[in-house]
Amino acid sequence: MRILLAEDDRYLGEGLALGLKQLGHTVDWVMDGMAAEQALSTENLDVLILDLGLPRQDGLHVLQKLRKQGKDLPVLVLTARDAVEQRIEGLDSGADDYVVKPFDLLEVNARLRAITRRREGRSASVITYGDLVLDPAARSLTKAGEEIMLGASEFAVLESLLTHQGRILSRQVLEETLYGWDEGVESNAVEVYVHHLRKKLGKDLIRTVRGVGYTIQKLVHQ
């Protein structure tokens, strides 16, 4: 999952970014609202974690502008325990959920999965595709009931393709799932991970659309 974290508290931001990366996510962290707006306008993101009390441009303005632009990016708001009115205003402005500081990392991760799942139109916590069952919470994959071991990057590529069944994802989009701003991108990384996935799951699962990207065909009936 590619996450934009907008939080101006350095201690909190560093801890949350590190924790989410350890859980397998790609995290880019900004410390003010202007930087958040810039990132939202240029990056391919899966979810926004937003503190409403940001400098230079408050988080509520960032959220309202995002929704006025018609973007349906899932947004998880961070608020103080006593900021009830702020939470209400955030939800009314288009936030999908909120979490109260101080919070538990695993709760944040669960709420992120829940709001992205709702936006994708899924009610189940796992993604089923034929005889494949991918569990984002457990970071596990089974095929016909047998566990298939995947590396973190292989899992991220497969999760992105299964989440967007029927859509062609470009190499750039998949790279942005794997690498944050401060990480070097290996030129053929996506091709390597797709190759590994085909070896483990069959060569016909992931289709290459030459010159465009990769896709997994959408199943009409599960």
TrEMBL record:
Annotated GO CC locations: cytosol; protein-DNA complex
GO MF term set: phosphorelay response regulator activity; transcription cis-regulatory region binding
Broad class of where this protein is predominantly found: cytoplasm
GO biological process: regulation of DNA-templated transcription
DNA-binding interval(s): 124-218
UniProt keyword list: Cytoplasm, DNA-binding, Phosphoprotein, Transcription, Transcription regulation, Two-component regulatory system
Gene3D superfamilies (UniProt xref): 3.40.50.2300, 6.10.250.690, Winged helix-like DNA-binding domain superfamily/Winged helix DNA-binding domain
Keyword Nucleotide-binding assigned: no
UniProt-listed InterPro entries: CheY-like_superfamily, OmpR/PhoB-type_DNA-bd, Sig_transdc_resp-reg_C-effctor, Sig_transdc_resp-reg_receiver, WalR-like, WH-like_DNA-bd_sf
Domain OmpR/PhoB-type as annotated: residue spans: 124-218
Residues covered by the Response regulatory domain: 2-116
Protein name, as recorded: Transcriptional regulatory protein QseB
Stored PROSITE patterns: OMPR_PHOB, RESPONSE_REGULATORY
Residues that bear 4-aspartylphosphate: D51
Subcellular location: Cytoplasm
Keyword set includes Phosphoprotein: yes
